[in-house]
Design brief:
14 helices; 74% helix; flat
Amino acid sequence: MTTLTLPARGPRTTRRVARGTATGLVAAAASFLFLLPVVWVVATSLKPDVEIFAIPPTVLPESPTTTHFASVLGNETVLQFFRNSLLAAGGATAVGLLLGVPAAFGFAKFRYRFSGVLLGSVLVTRMFPPVALALPFFLQFRQLGLIDSPLGLAIAYLPIVLPLIIWMLEGFFRELPEELLEAARLDGAGTLGTIGRIVLPISTPAVAVAALFGFLAAWNELVIALSLTRTPAAQTMPVGISGYITQFQTLWGDMTAAAVVYLLPVLVLTLLCQRGIISGLTAGATKG
């Protein structure tokens, strides 16, 4: 009978296994830290009030209830907050894409003196905290009659969304091969024709990622919305959710249920577009 002897693991194999194990542990720890607040919010939204304040606290609901969701979804004001968020964030993202795509292409492919300075000046508003923009917006929008209006909010979100879109797309467009653009010019396409017929079709993942991140930046904004709106007719979901904190109590159940309703559309959209997001984020790094 012949005895088989397994080859001994070399130092390189051992290091590879150790590196893979360490990477897995770090990824698991990071995932746990990111998911814990989401799990806590979802679990709290399903607990009755007595269980929310129980000592010691429970992680998962022992007597799940949909009372808080019924209260939130049956409240027309909350649905108005949701519509306002969609209008303001969606409008700012649409206009941001309309202006940001040609602007990013121009900064990437038409380099000239001081173009870098101009690009930096466009992006500088991303360095300002929203609270620094809120007061100038309030003074200007009051003169223009745009206070307490979803249209005013969409305009106010543009300085947040547009630089983000330009910054993300400029790096991607810079890596597009010149031969491709030159061929479009030889076919008689102008700059806008080149963008529409050549650039956009091959840049769909990057444009989608820029649109998603721009939308999220406006979707989650609170300070400017709090400063420029006064009534539920224009207030957004972040402002509405903060309203569950009153002078005398915090309505944790309704607040977390509203947060889940607010989170779900973006979460579902992100999961559905996950492959495209990864493709868009890595496309610029793999070109050239």
